[in-house]
Specification:
The protein is an alpha/beta fold. It has a single domain, classed as Ribose 5-phosphate Isomerase B, Chain: A, CATH 3.40.1400. Helix content is 51%, strand content 15%. It has six helices and five strands, in the order βαβαβαβαβαα. The chain has a five-stranded parallel beta sheet, sandwiched between helices. β4, α4 and β5 form a beta-alpha-beta unit. The longest helix is centred in the first third of the chain and has 17 residues. It is globular.
């Protein structure tokens, strides 16, 4: 699995903590910025970088996932969902992230740095990476319906 991570200034500190979690657990990743704390940066550039990489990976049949962090998590979530093949979800807690992976096969996790503690974020990331999609008839049907909506809108 290829993991991409990005955050703006409000998510920068939490991103660095998640990178420590990756290091401690031998998880490979690519950091797409911000590379240093800049209180005037904007989240769309980092959400675009991560979402583009995940989208490209999926097009090439790679297991690619992204983690995006901003203050509310909503901004990066909105940007991510503009990209083809991206199903981004805002992480609320560990159980909700597990459900989002099992039922909706999210491939980008958005985290609210202003709301999630370091430990909560680590647990959500762990759930995001370890929980598999359950391709039941119901879940698969719903994902197909989403893809149909996307085709009609393009």
């Amino acid at each position: 699995m290829k993991i991409y991570i990005g955050a703006d200034h409000r998510g920068f500190k939490l991103k660095e903590e998640i990178k420590k979690y990756f290091y401690e657990n031998g998880i490979g990743y690519e950091d797409l910025g911000a590379y240093e704390f800049n209180p005037t940066d904007d989240y769309p550039i980092y959400a675009e970088r991560v979402s583009n990489k995940v989208s490209e990976g999926i097009k090439e049949a790679q297991d690619s996932r992204g983690i995006l962090i901003c203050g509310s998590g909503v901004g990066v979530d909105i940007v991510a969902n503009k990209f083809e093949h991206i199903r981004s979800g805002l992480g609320i807690n560990t159980e909700q992230v597990k459900s989002a992976r099992r039922d909706d096969d999210i491939n980008v996790l958005a985290i609210a740095a202003d709301e999630a503690s370091e430990n909560e974020a680590r647990e959500m990331v762990k759930a995001f990476l370890e929980t598999e999609f359950e391709p039941s008839e119901k879940h698969t049907r719903r994902l197909n319906e989403i893809e149909e909506i996307e085709r009609e809108k393009s």
